Structures are given as C-alpha cells and as structure tokens.
C-alpha cells in the first residue's frame, strides 16, 4: 500500500511541476510577444525552461547580482552569439603626443554617472546584428561632440555598418578601427537622416553616405594606457566622458537584471578574450554592511535595448579586470 501511495505522490508532483512549467512558459510568451509554430514552440520551451532553472538556481545563492528572464530566454546559443560582434585588432599605441593626467595631483570624485547627462543619447537596440562595435564607437563620439559644441544629436551607427571598410558590418568589428575609418573618410553623419535598420533586416545595407552630410569629425583617439589601470580609467572618465571598451560575455551575462555583475569564469588571462563592445559611463561603490564588504563597480552601457538589464545598463565589479573590461578602455575626441 505504501509503495502505491509513494508512486501516486510522485505522479502528482510531476503533474504539478508540469503545470507550473506550462504556466511560466505561457506567461513569458505573453510578456515578450513570442509567437511560435507548434513544432518550434516545443524547442523554444525547452530552451526557456533550461534558462529558467539556471536563473532560479543563481538567485537562490548569489546576493551580489540577480538574473531574470528577457527576450533572450528562449533563444539558442547560436542566436545569442550573433550579438557578440567585437573583433579587436592587435593593439597599436598611437605615436602622437598625448597630454598626461598626473593621477596623484588629479582629484577624482568618489563616483561618476553620465547616464542622465544631456550629452548621452538614449540606449538603443543593435538587434540580431553583431554591430556592438559601431554603437560603442558612436556613443563615445556623440558625447564628445556634444561636450565640445553643446549640440546634442544622434550620429549614425548604420553608416558605419554599411560603409566602414575597416570593419565587418553585422559580422563584427573594432571601435577604434571605426574611429580610424571616420578620421580617414570624413566623419560621422546624422543618425536621424541615416537611421539604424540592421537590427530588423539582419543585414548591412548599401553605403549611401555623402561627405557633405558629415556632422562630427574625429580629431584624436587612443587607448587608456598603460592598462589595465583602474585609476587611469577613472581619470579619463572625468576628463573625456564615456569610454568605449570590450568585454568577454558569458552565458550568465545575457540574463543580468540588477546588482554588481561578477563571475569567477570571467577573470581571464588572455587580454584578447573579448567578444562584445560596451561603453563605460561611470563608477561607484556599493557601501559595506555588517555582513558584506564594499563592492566597487563600473557603470556600463549596453546596446541590447532598455528592456535588458537595468534599463540598458549594468554594473560590473571594478578593480579586478572582470571580463577584461579594464584592458580595452579607449577614448575619442572630435576635431
């Protein structure tokens, strides 16, 4: 009798678990407007439930940062990898003279946050195109242009995707190569007249930029060197504004929602182990408590829409070169 009762309880538990999984899957599809064929739905559900279990397991034990569902939760690894378009070329130190910033004499604030600065354009969505490099290049250039002239306006990522022969469009690129292209071929054009479309078409278009449409010219750019140097990055954030950089993206990062991101697997020895371009827009520190030490962090802008992370931004641990973020910081100045 006890044996049959145990079997019955197992069956009931399985039925309840299946119903809960069905409910959370239906809720997810409704929230993110996911419409699949019957055949595809089963595969998408399997992807989603795998992520769902990983998210729940992470959130039970990790107190520093949280994961949550987003538009990526039912995607395959091949689909999410399309977003990772950074292909950094071998680092080249520019030979031009560069003004120094004496760190000992330079008073650095305890925190910087450019997210609400008028010179920072709204977060955009690169879509299913590996164009993160163009967004990193343009974001920093937009800020520099506004800082110098006071003119606040979008510049065109799509022009870089379509026209930049130094990079590879939706197949990836290097933001410093993008600045070099803009310096060599005239400059950046207005984003309103050459809007971003690659996220919906999945392809790069035919270049239709005209030199007389240029509204911002690259005057100078360089790496933050020597690297990795936390204090130097903080100094350049104060003097130059937002800095383009590159990181290594692990699967856990796709589902970041809040807190200070860190992952032991993201402290890597190879500086070229990066696959995604982002923009550092500030820094700060989570205060210490009676149960936990202070946590220094970078404030970082992504290009996966405001529906990802913290309205398009994330915090990542500062001072340990997490995911190589402190090895690739670079700045640009308009002419």
UniProtKB/TrEMBL annotation:
<keyword id="KW-0788">Thiol protease</keyword>
<dbReference type="InterPro" id="IPR025660">
    <property type="entry name" value="Pept_his_AS"/>
</dbReference>
<keyword id="KW-0378">Hydrolase</keyword>
<feature type="domain" description="Cathepsin propeptide inhibitor">
    <location>
        <begin position="25"/>
        <end position="80"/>
    </location>
</feature>
<dbReference type="InterPro" id="IPR013201">
    <property type="entry name" value="Prot_inhib_I29"/>
</dbReference>
<dbReference type="InterPro" id="IPR000668">
    <property type="entry name" value="Peptidase_C1A_C"/>
</dbReference>
<dbReference type="InterPro" id="IPR013128">
    <property type="entry name" value="Peptidase_C1A"/>
</dbReference>
<dbReference type="Pfam" id="PF00112">
    <property type="entry name" value="Peptidase_C1"/>
</dbReference>
<dbReference type="GO" id="GO:0006508">
    <property type="term" value="P:proteolysis"/>
</dbReference>
<feature type="signal peptide">
    <location>
        <begin position="1"/>
        <end position="17"/>
    </location>
</feature>
<dbReference type="GO" id="GO:0008234">
    <property type="term" value="F:cysteine-type peptidase activity"/>
</dbReference>
<dbReference type="InterPro" id="IPR025661">
    <property type="entry name" value="Pept_asp_AS"/>
</dbReference>
<feature type="domain" description="Peptidase C1A papain C-terminal">
    <location>
        <begin position="108"/>
        <end position="333"/>
    </location>
</feature>
<dbReference type="InterPro" id="IPR000169">
    <property type="entry name" value="Pept_cys_AS"/>
</dbReference>
<comment type="similarity">
    <text>Belongs to the peptidase C1 family.</text>
</comment>
<keyword id="KW-0732">Signal</keyword>
<dbReference type="InterPro" id="IPR039417">
    <property type="entry name" value="Peptidase_C1A_papain-like"/>
</dbReference>
<dbReference type="Pfam" id="PF08246">
    <property type="entry name" value="Inhibitor_I29"/>
</dbReference>
<dbReference type="InterPro" id="IPR038765">
    <property type="entry name" value="Papain-like_cys_pep_sf"/>
</dbReference>
<keyword id="KW-0645">Protease</keyword>
<protein>
    <submittedName>
        <fullName>Uncharacterized protein</fullName>
    </submittedName>
</protein>
<keyword id="KW-0865">Zymogen</keyword>
<keyword id="KW-1015">Disulfide bond</keyword>
């Amino acid at each position: 009798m006890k044996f049959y009762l145990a079997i019955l309880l197992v069956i009931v538990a399985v039925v309840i678990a299946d119903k809960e999984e069905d409910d959370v899957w239906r809720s997810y599809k409704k929230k993110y407007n996911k419409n699949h064929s019957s055949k595809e739905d089963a595969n998408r559900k399997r992807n989603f439930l795998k992520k769902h279990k990983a998210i729940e397991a992470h959130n039970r034990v990790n107190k520093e940062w949280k994961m949550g569902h987003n538009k990526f939760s039912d995607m395959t690894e091949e689909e999410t990898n399309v977003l990772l378009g950074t292909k950094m070329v071998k680092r080249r130190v520019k030979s031009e003279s560069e003004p120094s910033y004496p760190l000992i004499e330079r008073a650095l604030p305890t925190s910087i946050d450019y997210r609400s600065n008028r010179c920072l354009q709204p977060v955009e969505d690169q879509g299913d195109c590996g164009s993160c490099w163009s967004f990193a290049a343009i974001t920093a250039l937009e800020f520099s242009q506004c800082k110098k002239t006071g003119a606040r306006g979008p510049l065109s990522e799509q022009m870089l995707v379509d026209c930049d022969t130094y990079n590879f469009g939706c197949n990836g690129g290097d933001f410093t190569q993008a600045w070099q292209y803009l310096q060599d071929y005239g400059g950046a054009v207005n984003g309103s007249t050459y809007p971003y479309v690659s996220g919906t078409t999945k392809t790069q278009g035919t270049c239709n930029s005209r030199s007389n449409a240029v509204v911002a010219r690259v005057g100078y750019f360089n790496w933050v060197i020597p690297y990795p140097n936390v204090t130097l990055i903080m100094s350049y954030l104060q003097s130059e504004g937002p800095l383009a950089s590159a990181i290594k993206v692990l699967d856990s990062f796709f589902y970041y929602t809040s807190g200070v991101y860190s992952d032991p697997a993201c402290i890597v020895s190879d500086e070229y182990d990066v696959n995604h371009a982002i923009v550092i827009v500030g820094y700060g520190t989570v205060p210490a408590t009676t149960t936990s030490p202070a946590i220094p962090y970078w404030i970082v802008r992504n290009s996966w829409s405001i529906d990802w992370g913290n309205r398009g931004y994330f915090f990542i641990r500062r001072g340990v070169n997490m995911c190589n973020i402190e090895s690739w910081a670079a700045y640009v100045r308009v002419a």
